[in-house]
Amino acid sequence: MPTIESLLHSADLPDSPSARLDAEWLLAAALGKTASYLRTWPEREVPPACAERFATDLARRRQGEPIAYILGRQGFWSLELEVAADTLIPRPDTELLVETALQLIPATSARVLDLGTGTGAIALALAAECSAWQVCGVDRIESAVALAERNRVRLGLENAAFTVSNWFAGLQGERFQMIVSNPPYIPASDPHLQKGDVRFEPQSALVAGVDGLDDIRSIISQAPAHLQAGGWLLLEHGYDQAEAVRALLVCQGFEDVQSRLDLGGHERISLGRFS
Fold first, then answer.
1. pLDDT tens digits for range 4-14
2. How far is CA 209 from CA 166, 203, 227, 233, 270, in A?
3. Which tens digits make up the pLDDT trace of 44-81?
4. CA angle 90, 92, 94 (to 5 degrees)
5. What is the pLDDT of residue 12?
6. Is 129 exposed, middle or buried (0-12, 13-18, 19+ CB in 10 A)?
7. How far, in Å, are 91, 92, 128, 171 from residue 74 at the CA level?
8. Cβ-count burial of 60 within 10 angstroms (0-12 exposed, 13-18 middle, 19+ buried)?
9. Which of 155, 226, 232, 233 is at a distance of 20 to 30 A from 105, taking alpha carbons?
10. Mode of pairing for the β-strands spanning 255-261 and 227-236
11. CB burial class (10 A; 0-12, 13-18, 19+) of residue 40?
């Protein structure tokens, strides 16, 4: 039987910038072990069934399929989340949205809305940090809502809830102290849509019209009707869209409009308060 080290050494992922790490994650999953186990016991033999699963998963990764979809999970904030091919994979840059939201209103009773929740990542991170908040996550895709609910149940977060709604369509008359969203914001003609992991992610979670701002415009125009006085709207957007998003917020009457930098030094989220 092959050993852990021999399988890792022979793993062929020429197009991956993190080939060794990818292989370790896939082999650890096949064995039901941690990556640290592989490094501690490299001489251990790998059973045939595990080696076969590793070979299958390696082939999927070689075709460019994201590790998160192959493993069915992704870390975000302090949480381990189930992911699926009909939802966007949570990314580290989106943690800026969570971090900023936690700074804006007290960790006392508040209603918070996460639009386009997907896996529930943002909503569940906020619910985990602020037990006094009631966090509602909505998505127009029923399977995404079901996935977010599975994550909620597994994490035991009773102060979060998920429901089907196309942006605000199912929330008539409801108001919140804060609305957060990581909506689609990539222009339809962006060549990056044909490269890397995003080839496998749902286009509906990525693309928003000619300039990438269609969904952001819709959210900004409708948000005032769903914000309590002094409530905040926080939006993730593209690295070069901050100026345009700030202008949209100002035109809609938002105050204290500002943007925040992501890990790469780009203006990644913009926000404003509606009085």
1. 999 998 888 87
2. 17, 11, 26, 21, 19
3. 999 999 999 999 999 999 988 999 999 999 999 999 99
4. 70
5. 84
6. middle
7. 9, 11, 17, 29
8. middle
9. 155
10. unpaired
11. exposed
CA–CA distance, 29 with 70 (Å, rounded to integer): 10
What separation in angstroms does the CA of 238 have from each of 106, 169, 185, 206? 28, 25, 6, 11
b/e burial code for range 184-222 (CB count within 10 A of at least 16 → b): bbbbeeeeebeeeebebbbeebbbbbebbbbbbbbbbeb
Indicate the pTM of the whole model: 0.91
Residue 71 CA, chain-centre distance (Å), reads 16
Determine the average pLDDT of the residues in 73-100.
94
66 residue type, one letter: P
